[in-house]
C-alpha cells in the first residue's frame, strides 16, 4: 500500500479495535457461532458503483483482529479508481470469521472510499479553473480524523491542520478580541516556531495581515472576484503568504475560486457530507 496515502498504523488499530468491540460486546457473533468451525469459503469485496478506494488498511486490520488465518489478497490500493463490478480484495478462510469481520471491514471501506471519491470530484472540478489544491478541514468524525484525512489524500486532496496544535489559526473570534496586528504579535511571541494563519473577510483585513507578517491568509466568505482582488494585493507583498479560500464553496463554484489564484480551497463537506460508496461482500458458492 502507498504509504503517503495511509493513516498511521496505530490509528488504524485503535479505530478497528473500537469498532469490533462495539460489534461483538458482550457475547460475540451469535449467528456465526452456529456455523461449522471447519467450513471454509472464498469471498470477494466488490464495488457496486464508481468512486475512489480508501480504507484498505482498516479492512485488512478487521480481518487480522478477528482471525489472522484468513487470507486477504488485494486487487486495488487506496487512491485507485472504482467502477461497478471492481473486485477490491479476495478473502479466503473460515466462513464464520469472514462473516464476523464483514460489516466492520465494509463500514470502513464504504465510509472512507466515500470521502476519497468526494475529494476526487472536487479536485477535478478545481483543476478546470486553476492550480488550487483542495484542502480538508477539522470537520471530521470524532475519533476518525487520521483515517478521514488519509482518505482525502487518497482522493487527491491535501490536509489542512490535523489538530489545534499544528499551527496558529486566528479566526474572527480571536481577532475580535485582539485585532489582527496584536494577535499576530502575540502568536509570534508565544509560539515563534509555528506558522500564523489569519482569517480575513475584507480587503482591509488582508492589508493589515500582510503588514503584520502573517504566513497564510484564510479568505473567508468572499466572491471569486473579491478573492482575485485579495490575491493581487497579496502578490505585491514582499513575502507572499499562502492563500486559502473557504466558505460555502460548491462543486459549481470551485473552478471560479481556483481561477482566482488562491493556493488552496478548503471544503468541510469532504469529510462531513460525503456519501458512502456501496461495496458488498460476495461469497462464492460453497
From TrEMBL:
Organism: freshwater metagenome
Domain spans labelled Quinolinate phosphoribosyl transferase C-terminal: 115-282
Recorded catalytic activity of this chain's protein: nicotinate beta-D-ribonucleotide + CO2 + diphosphate = quinolinate + 5-phospho-alpha-D-ribose 1-diphosphate + 2 H(+)
Gene Ontology biological process terms from the UniProt entry: NAD+ biosynthetic process; quinolinate catabolic process
Domain Quinolinate phosphoribosyl transferase N-terminal: 29-113
Gene Ontology CC annotation, any one: cytoplasm
EC number: 2.4.2.19
Name of this chain's protein: Probable nicotinate-nucleotide pyrophosphorylase [carboxylating]
Family: Belongs to the NadC/ModD family.
CDD domains reported in the protein's UniProt record: QPRTase
Positions in coiled-coil regions: none
Molecular function terms from GO: nicotinate-nucleotide diphosphorylase (carboxylating) activity
Subunit note: Hexamer formed by 3 homodimers.
Function noted in UniProt: Involved in the catabolism of quinolinic acid (QA).
Pathway the protein contributes to: Cofactor biosynthesis; NAD(+) biosynthesis; nicotinate D-ribonucleotide from quinolinate: step 1/1
Keyword annotations from UniProtKB, A to Z: Glycosyltransferase, Pyridine nucleotide biosynthesis, Transferase
Amino acid at each position: 500500500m502507498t504509504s503517503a496515502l495511509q493513516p498511521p498504523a496505530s490509528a488504524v488499530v485503535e479505530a478497528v479495535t473500537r469498532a469490533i468491540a462495539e460489534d461483538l460486546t458482550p457475547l460475540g457473533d451469535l449467528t456465526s457461532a452456529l456455523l461449522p468451525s471447519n467450513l471454509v469459503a472464498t469471498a470477494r469485496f466488490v464495488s457496486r458503483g464508481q468512486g475512489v478506494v480508501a480504507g484498505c488498511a482498516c479492512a485488512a486490520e478487521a480481518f487480522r483482529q478477528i482471525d489472522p488465518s484468513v487470507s486477504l489478497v488485494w486487487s486495488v490500493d487506496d487512491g485507485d479508481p472504482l467502477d461497478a463490478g471492481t473486485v477490491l480484495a479476495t478473502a479466503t478462510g473460515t466462513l464464520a470469521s469472514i462473516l464476523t469481520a464483514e460489516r466492520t471491514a465494509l463500514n470502513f471501506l464504504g465510509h472512507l472510499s466515500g470521502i476519497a471519491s468526494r475529494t476526487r470530484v472536487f479536485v477535478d472540478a478545481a483543476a478546470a479553473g486553476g492550480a488550487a489544491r483542495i484542502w480538508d478541514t477539522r470537520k471530521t468524525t470524532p475519533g476518525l480524523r487520521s483515517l478521514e484525512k488519509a482518505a482525502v489524500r487518497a482522493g487527491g486532496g491535501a490536509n489542512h491542520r490535523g489538530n489545534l496544535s499544528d499551527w496558529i489559526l486566528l479566526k474572527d473570534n480571536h481577532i475580535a478580541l485582539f485585532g489582527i496586528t496584536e494577535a499576530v504579535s502575540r502568536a509570534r511571541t508565544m509560539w515563534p516556531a509555528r506558522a500564523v494563519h489569519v482569517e480575513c473577510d475584507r480587503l482591509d483585513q488582508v492589508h493589515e495581515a500582510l503588514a503584520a507578517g502573517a504566513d497564510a491568509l484564510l479568505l473567508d466568505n468572499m466572491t471569486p472576484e473579491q478573492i482575485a482582488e485579495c490575491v493581487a494585493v497579496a502578490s505585491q507583498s514582499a513575502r507572499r503568504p499562502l492563500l486559502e479560500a473557504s466558505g460555502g464553496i460548491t462543486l459549481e463554484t470551485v473552478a471560479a475560486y481556483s481561477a482566482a489564484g488562491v493556493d488552496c480551497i478548503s471544503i468541510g463537506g469532504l469529510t462531513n457530507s460525503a456519501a458512502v460508496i456501496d461495496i458488498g461482500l460476495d461469497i462464492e458458492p460453497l
